[in-house]
Amino acid sequence: MLTLELALAGLGIGSIAALAGLGLLVTYRLTGVFNLAFGAIAMAAAYLLWQAVRVWHWPLALAAVVDVLVICPIFGVLLERFVFRPLQRRAAAPAEKLVASLGVFVVLLGGAVLVWGAQARLDAPSLVPYRQLPLPGGVQLPLSTVVDLAVIIVVGIGLALGQRTRLGLRVRAVVEQRELAELQGLDANRVAALGWAIGSMLAGVAGVLMAPTLRLQPYGLTLVMLETMAVVVVAQLTSPVRAIAAGLMVGVIQAELARVHLGGYSGALFDALTANLFVVALLVALLIVRRLNETGGDDAGTTARLTTRGELASARGWWLVPALTLAAPLMFNAQDRRVALAVPALAIVLVSIVVVSGYSGQISLGQAGFAGLGALIAARLAAGTMPGFGRIPGVAVLVMVPLLMVPIGLLLGWPAIRRRGLFLALTTFAFSVAVSRFVFDQPSVTSGLTVHPPDAFGSDNNFYVLELLCLAAAFLVVRNLHNGRVGRALIAVRDDESGALACGVDVRRLKLLVFAASAALAALGGALLAMGSRAFDTGAFDPTRGLIWFAAVVVFGIDSAPGAVIGAGVLVALDAGLPQGSSILVIGLCALLLGRMPGGLLHSMHRLFDHTVRRIAPGIVPDVRQRPTRAVQLTPAGRAMVGQLRRRAAGGQGVTP
């Protein structure tokens, strides 16, 4: 039976989730971008308020006004002008905007860690005084909950009414069809800037209201905001009423379940379920909801045209940089070599992202979950505590881990059959969060685990050679997926899934194959990461790590396996040689420049190099545009269709579709 006191406490939790989800929903409707940086903007606003009040000793009211009503809107305008407007000018796919928002997320997260550190702070300033409002029946309701509910109602009503106003219709026109809106004389840039200003202001409101209730910590506060995406999924990106109702309902259910106590392992699992009910709600919502009402059409989330395929492969000596990156640690001293052990292992994880996102066009944000499961399985196989298996010796562990991860990859790949773009990105991210909460954070599963390299590769030099051999095997898998008939089918699915399906490509089987291969590679890389560090570290496989890895792959070329190796080297080197958070900050800054670097950093550098050489010494570097194209091999049915079209054209007949 429901308890009124717990229900009122649940309203406080639900109001926080509803506020975050509603802010994300409003930002999406105003800008057309699913802003993964919404939580990071909220976190940064909360830290700025803490800095102004606790360090600079500003009055709380003045600091809040400057933070929320001045800094946040200006930041939103700057985002539109310098990050997202270049993407609009070159008609970038919505997936590129998603990646750009991920770059903003990474920059703010890295900057917060660099400036304020990663430790939690419990003295976040509260805009609402701690006061209990008496209600009939002797129960009390916190004033902060009342304020949160009031903000939610105001924002929800504003969104519902604003859609019917003239300004709301202009915003919708710019978001849905920017080119047509500009033909009608609308200043699309000004309308988009207004949308980003309002969205950033709502993120600031959510951050300063939520920080006193939650811990003020960069990763924690940002991830909590991301977990509330269940509210947005239930609303199908359109309905503010459903978003508010979903947030409040899950909050009340979570509070009511807190009075249920079970013993043993089932009790620990139930407690984890109760504490992470929003994660469960996100998974359930993603499985139940058939489609999201995305702006830009059903295929709005495709990663097609993220890169200019094949440019880097045409450059002579393109393997030199990754080869030097991998060979350099062999000449390091013992301490630096121990740090460099993470480079080949992380490169394998990043290569798995290249396979699933670069080659097949599926946005996967769940590779951290696959890598962590690979590390966990390796530790249990080596210790002989894996259910159904005895103790697996030596290198055989590295063979078993990818094989055991293939079924999990197929399981996650099944929802990908009918999902693309944003929908699939949310699904894979929810998988990573669920694995982190229900597996990695459970002491009964991960406590006391130690991971050691195989006996024959116990020294750092020998283990590094083993990692290079595993990376070579990963490149062999990638080569087989990249070339030949499978590679052509993957390109077709990435560029035009409907067209590939019409041409007879078995899209379902291909997607399952790609997800299985990607999961196996990520698990192998995760196992090597754990062996190199001699321990299973749950923080190394946090879901936010997966977002950072995805951003790094996009920055260095999402369809470039050598770029993944360079990205891994950059991440490890920056983490080792610079203050904490520097690598995150650098990757995020590069991600912000995607509007000016089509295809990523390596592709842009290659184009710049070719352009420079052609101007200095014409004729040395051939122009890619003048290269003869290879004839396409057609099937007999295709040749017959081409002949029919030619005969109709010669006879002057119209060609019917």
Automatic annotation (TrEMBL):
Predominant localisation class? membrane
Cite a single GO BP annotation: amino acid transport
- A Pfam family it matches: BPD_transp_2
What is a single molecular function from GO for this protein?
branched-chain amino acid transmembrane transporter activity
The listed locations are: Cell membrane
**Keywords for this protein:** Amino-acid transport, Cell membrane, Membrane, Transmembrane, Transmembrane helix, Transport
GO CC annotations on file: plasma membrane
- Tell me where the transmembrane regions lie: 6-26, 33-50, 56-78, 98-119, 139-162, 191-211, 265-289, 339-359, 395-416, 422-440, 461-478, 512-536, 548-574, 580-597
Does the keyword Cell membrane belong to this entry? yes
Membrane association type = Multi-pass membrane protein
Q: What is this protein called?
A: Unannotated protein
Q: Which organism is it from?
A: freshwater metagenome
The record lists the lineage as:
unclassified sequences, metagenomes, ecological metagenomes
